[in-house]
Amino acid sequence: MADAPEDAQLAALDLGSNSFHLVVAHQVNGRIQIVDRIKETVRLAEGLDDKNRLSDLVAERSLACLERFGQRLKNLHRANVRAVGTNTLRRASNVTAFLESAEDALGFPIEIISGREEARLIYLGVAHSIEDNFDRRLVVDIGGGSTELIVGHGFETDLTESLHMGCVGMSRTCFEDGRIRATDYKDAVNRARQELTPVATAFVEAGWDTAIGASGTILAVQEVLAQLQQTHAGITADGIKQIRKQLLDAGHADKVSLPGLSADRRAVFPGGVAILDAIFQTLEVDTMQATNGALREGVIQDLLGRVQHQDIRENTVLDLCGRYHIDQKHGRRVRDLAISLLAQVAVAWKLTDPNDALLLSWAADLHEIGMDISHSQYHKHGGYLLNNMDLPGFSRSDQSQLANLVRTHRRKFPVDEGYSEKTTRLAVLLRLAVLFHRNRTSSPLPHVAMAAENRHVNLMLPTDWLEGHPLTRLDIAQEADYLSTIGIELLTAESA
User: E strands along 17-135, which residues?
Assistant: First the structure.
């Protein structure tokens, strides 16, 4: 697939637990100009049962929304659209089946991102939406299913957390059937403070100069206070108390009548206010200003970086190389050969997506990450590390695939892991690249010609070179045995 034109439209879709948000933007001289915003309240989190299965009713509602969004996106380049799923899709036990239908409805792939990756993108969106006064910021985003807390400066994050509480979940748990009582509100605040307590000290000690709020809940609180108080002083603890009194006086979500509060937010507003109240109390926040920048704007900025070849994932990989003392020269040699082999079989093996080359490159860079733990079984240590650490910029699916490639780059191929055909083929390329660079020298290799068809792989090497490298000949024969266990036939031909 060719790279997307850099002057084309970009689009970001946030599949949140309360609402789906679509932002379409045009880049002008490297800057983002929003040209369209679409929001639909789907209440995705309402569809999770006690076994975290997404109900058919909510799934159908969500798919109908995605079909409408798909109409808006159908003429955009695939590489310029990024759709991300957050807390509810992270939790849903039947997410795989839902994603298949969702991607068909939307017409584009959907990534599930981790909580800390969500926090990073939220901060990026906020940072690009406000003036940079070179101060440290606390950024808070109360979503439908999770709450993100970030401390950072400029465009960089210093501390990120994603907590398992959101306005939809808290409202369902503590304000059952919409009733709002003092005991219910106190319970909601205490539950939120319980979630906050393990991370509160780290955030307070990190410190900040200004507190910024994002998301529907905080924007709604600020708008309500602006109309109640006829001022734009932002959100304060006294202001939250004023809203709390009005909620308790109403007694039920359906009877809440606050200026500036939309009808579709009433049902989840009490839970969101209680979480914000707990944050002010626990983190001792004085004043907070809300901004429109949030996850979708962060995704747009991150996408712009990828289009302009400033991919945060590349920085993540470089950071890991340094942190785990990886031999980067060796990794580069393995990467170069792996990409050379990929170029020869990409069409035959249907590995033409640009992301395929990126994942193979990063796997080559990181294939020895496990050595910092132990040389014995280091491929397994590496796979475990990459599967379980926070990798800024990576979706959960890409992170899992990267971990699987590192896990399978040597020794016996795990036949019971159920890897996809794409992962298996990329793993074969990485294994061969590692094999040919076993001696870890910078001595040039001959041209390694490779052809592939389905599960048949053919290598062609100069006869005189193979004769002078009997260990490599033995390694190739052993690799053929390893690959035969997963039904791949590896053959070697010799050229004059």
Answer: 19-28, 31-41, 81-85, 110-112
